[in-house]
TrEMBL record:
Coiled coil: none
Signal peptide interval: none
Pfam families membership: PQQ_2 (PF13360)
Record-annotated Pyrrolo-quinoline quinone repeat domain positions: 9-75
Protein name: Pyrrolo-quinoline quinone repeat domain-containing protein
Amino acid sequence: MEKLFLGIKGQLVCLDKASGDKLWATKLKSTSGVTNLLFEDDKVFAYSGGHLFCVAAKDGKVLWENKLDGLGYGPCIIASENQNASLIADQLQAQQASAATAGVIAATAGSASANGSD
């Protein structure tokens, strides 16, 4: 079985890639924004709400948590010696651009509704 890991709204979710079934979900910290992930050595490292978590890939158990004191709550790029950090940075930029576009579309739609347009 191959697994797919999602970081969404402060949760780490594991799906079966073949069926799409949810295998487990772990609530991390924040319920807003992007939860960044790195999979390595049967562990998932997840950043959420200003904290870094190490989670067992097999069952979603939190193995450790680092509060990253003094570093704030902004976006975080996670990389290791085995992963290309620039790829992750590109993915984060694409997610942020998508969110900004969605905001512009929502604002435009709201303005059109207020003006009586369809």
